[in-house]
């Protein structure tokens, strides 16, 4: 009859415990209402929109879906900008231009922290408003 040693039993239990641990990957969700009033300075556009942004902390990817209405023209660029509080401007940190309405990109741990801290905003640019026609601060989705 086989009798495992204490060392073998301990190793087997450790391996089983590790397999049973849940993954610590986290899916983070953020939203933003996009308006002309949120631009700095505000634009006279009647356009509106929304952005849904999701982060996979394990894969270090960010994905987005943006909807817009009544822009003065087609979007020529879109970005996630930051770090900045509402009413402040900052440079782009994630380029959404190749896939304005729906896409994905890589994201760093530092960027994830700034996003969680409410320091990023989505900005949609058009030919008439090259600095941004509508924008909205990203907030954790409820």
TrEMBL record:
CHRD domain boundaries: 26-142
InterPro entries: CHRD
SMART domains linked to this entry: CHRD (SM00754)
Signal sequence extent: 1-25
Name of one Pfam family that matches: CHRD
Annotated transmembrane regions: none
UniProt keyword Signal present: yes
Keywords: Signal
Name recorded for this polypeptide: CHRD domain-containing protein
Lineage: Bacteria, Pseudomonadati, Pseudomonadota, Alphaproteobacteria, Rhodobacterales
């Amino acid at each position: 009859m086989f009798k495992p040693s204490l060392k073998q039993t301990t190793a087997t239990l450790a391996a089983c415990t590790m397999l049973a641990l849940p993954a610590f990957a986290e899916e983070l969700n953020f939203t933003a209402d996009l308006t002309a009033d949120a631009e700095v300075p505000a634009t006279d556009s009647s356009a509106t929109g929304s952005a849904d942004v999701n982060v996979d902390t394990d894969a270090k990817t960010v994905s987005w879906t943006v909807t817009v209405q009544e822009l003065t023209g087609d979007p020529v660029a879109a970005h996630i900008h930051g770090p900045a509080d509402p009413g402040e401007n900052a440079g782009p940190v994630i380029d959404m231009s190749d896939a304005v309405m729906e896409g994905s990109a890589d994201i760093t741990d530092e960027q994830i922290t700034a996003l969680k801290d409410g320091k990023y905003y989505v900005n949609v640019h058009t030919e008439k408003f090259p600095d941004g026609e509508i924008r909205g601060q990203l907030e954790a989705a409820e």
